[in-house]
Amino acid sequence: MALHPNLNSLAYFEAVARLGRVTLAATELGVSSAAISQQLKALEEQYGVLLFRRENRRLTLTLDGEMLFQATTSALQMIRGAQATIRRQHNSHNLTLRVSPTFGVRWLSMRLKRFIDANPDWGLHVDAAPDFTNFETEVVDLDLRYGTGAWDGLYSECIIRDLVLPMCSPDYLAELQATGGTPAEQLARARIIRCVKSLYQWDIWLARHGIDRPEEKRQLRFDRSSMVIDLARQGGGVILESMTLAFEDLKRGTLVPFSPVFQAVEFPAYWIVCPLRHTNRRIVRLFSDWVREEGRAHDTQAQAILAAYGCTHRPVEEMELILG
After folding, report:
1. pTM
2. Pairing between strand 238-242 and 155-168?
């Protein structure tokens, strides 16, 4: 038995098995019925088995034929899908990008016009989704993702080093300060708002600063940073959040650092992620260069805002992050 099957014969076989008749398969493939019959005969001789039975002028698969059909149709579907993807990418001038939702709304969307203006010949499709891209099954050029950079088998490059610190609305801070005591004592009495998806969590931060709080029977927990930021802006409590996501609020003063006593923690948090082969595409290189520069400018601006509030920052220790 030959180790390398004839793909042309398998394509003819798949069409006949799917349609049930040689004539229908010949019409679909644009070849003669005799050519298909010849290929089927050669395939049966190659494998040494019958692949079809003729029943009521229609061909039906034998058990061996059914086994071969299942494997062949799956393989051909994958090949056709890959061909369609390659053709679509070759014929179009589009960037397909996936991005973490809150980062997409609060950071990326506010800057995208500069990229569009600089690259008017390119189309853009942005999918703001919490699920990471499966690059083997989805047509996505690159992913902008929040995380630690640990994506096995993929190219990853940090574009923003985040700064995380406690913050709240100016009015809520004034209420707490009016109760007296040190910033640590005020924070022990404050209403805490938690984002469960954050890499840096309140429990770790509080323990590091030696702040004991009463047991919280009714916690405020959300799975989106955008929600906790909005709630804090309304005076709902104190958040431990990303300066990247709360940048505009800190810039306008609708949120403020809780106290300069508490240093912000700095760590690489926002990444370009894609298969290494995608970096050879011109549009991926163009976007990567652009977002890299935007990230550098943001880091400089964020540190300037932090300094204006009298705050400092320190590198995070690995044990402080939620890595799982």
Report:
1. 0.70
2. antiparallel
